């Protein structure tokens, strides 16, 4: 499994969560031994560790080795190794390279948990010695960090469930879409703000200086600064989404200059019927010939054939149609973003540390979305 697959399926985070929960149980077990003074039971800890790090529970991602090592004073001893003549040796390591790479992205959260496991296991050598307070404090900090990330992931899953319970586009309407959603195009430097606040209208991000790199055409934006006739709102007060992301915008000079740093955000298509007063258009919203609609039944007015073919000729009309849009008023919450699509692997280093996977957002490398006409 590649690092991208592991990142998308949150296997790193889930593994850390599993180990943090198991660590609490092991700590409770050791305290019970100290309280009862039944030090013979300390050998049970070996089996607990083996079960915790078994292939079934860690999917072979971690390596555990435990054995008794003869103490130097007993080098010629050939009998059974026990607490009196030997000490325990333990080695716990990350087995897979992709998991090691993720560990670096997560500031070695998993490595920190494994170090705590090793330190706690040292009680086998001297059960009368208390685990250092610093070790326990570090243990609690690590678990708190894991819980924070898990809560974000669980909240995202809950939000996605809410979307599934709301009104949806019909299967026939979904079939018309060229791809699996609607799309917002931006520079990767704007991604952190989007993951924190959601997608916001052009007017909001510019008036609040929330955009780091603007890839839009200034002249086109001036043409969009007008009132649509359906709800009487300024077009700049909407979040724009393309029905087909492979349109003339992809060929624009400002986009082509930074094409390797462009990201496409795939929005769950049901946003069209779930966000109140959302519009859709039969062409680019900057063009006066374009019509806006609020009635779902009017979706038939869109030139689906051209949008599905994804080709346009060098005339104003086909270019206008290829830029057909969905316009969502004010904002789109993060949980409506189902995927981030990038051109190449090189850009991942700018995206991984933002942890969109915690928000249930997959990352896909697909250069086909970035081809020109």
Gist of the model:
The chain has 373 residues and is α+β, with helices and mostly antiparallel strands. The protein has helices at 3-9, 11-36, 44-52, 55-58, 97-105, 109-121, 133-165, 171-176, 191-197, 202-207, 218-224, 253-257, 271-274, 304-309, 316-322, 348-351; strands spanning 62-70, 86-94, 182-187, 199-200, 238-242, 262-267, 279-281, 292-293, 325-329, 331-332, 337-342, 362-365.
% residues in beta strands = 15-25%
Q: What is the mean pLDDT? A: 90
The count of strands amounts to 12
Give the spatial strand order of the biggest sheet.
Answer: 3-6-11-12
Distance between the termini: 34 Å
Major beta-sheet overview: 4 strands, mixed
SSE pattern: HHHHEEHHHHEHEHHEHEHEEHHEEEHE
CA gyration radius, whole angstroms: 28 Å
What percent of residues adopt helix (DSSP H or I)? 40-55%
* Structural domain count: 2
Low-confidence stretches: none
Shape: elongated
Q: Which structural category fits the helices and strands?
A: alpha+beta
């Amino acid at each position: 499994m590649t690092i991208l697959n592991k990142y998308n399926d949150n296997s790193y985070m889930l593994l850390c969560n599993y180990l943090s929960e198991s660590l609490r149980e092991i700590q409770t077990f050791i305290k019970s031994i100290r309280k009862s003074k039944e030090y013979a039971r300390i050998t049970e800890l070996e089996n607990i560790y083996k079960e915790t790090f078994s292939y079934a529970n860690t999917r072979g991602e971690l390596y555990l080795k435990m054995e008794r090592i003869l103490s130097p004073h007993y080098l010629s001893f050939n009998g059974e190794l026990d607490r009196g003549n030997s000490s325990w040796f333990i080695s716990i390591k990350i087995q897979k390279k992709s998991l090691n790479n993720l560990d670096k992205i997560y500031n070695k959260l998993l490595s920190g948990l494994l170090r705590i496991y090793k330190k706690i296991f040292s009680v086998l050598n001297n059960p009368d010695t208390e685990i250092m307070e610093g070790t326990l404090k570090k243990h609690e900090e690590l678990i708190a960090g894991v819980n924070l990330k898990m809560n974000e992931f669980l909240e995202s899953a809950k939000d996605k469930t809410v979307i599934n319970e709301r009104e949806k586009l019909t299967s026939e309407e979904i079939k018309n879409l060229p791809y699996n959603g609607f799309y917002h195009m931006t520079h990767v430097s704007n991604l952190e703000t989007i993951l924190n606040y959601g997608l916001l209208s052009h007017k909001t991000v510019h008036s609040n200086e929330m955009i780091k790199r603007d890839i839009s055409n200034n002249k086109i934006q001036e043409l969009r600064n007008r009132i649509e006739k359906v709800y009487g709102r300024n077009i700049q007060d909407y979040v724009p989404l393309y029905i087909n992301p492979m349109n003339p915008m992809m060929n624009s000079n400002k986009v082509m200059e930074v094409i390797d740093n462009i990201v496409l955000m795939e929005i769950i298509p049901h946003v069209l019927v779930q966000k109140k007063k959302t519009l859709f258009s039969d062409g680019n919203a900057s063009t006066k010939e374009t019509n806006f609609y609020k009635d779902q039944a009017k979706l038939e007015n869109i030139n689906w054939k051209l949008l599905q073919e994804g080709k346009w000729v060098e005339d104003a009309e086909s270019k206008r149609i290829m830029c057909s849009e969905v316009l969502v008023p004010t904002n789109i919450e993060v949980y409506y973003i189902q995927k981030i699509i990038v051109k190449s692997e090189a850009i991942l280093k700018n995206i991984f540390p933002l942890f969109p996977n915690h928000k249930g957002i997959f990352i896909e490398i697909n250069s086909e979305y970035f081809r020109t006409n």
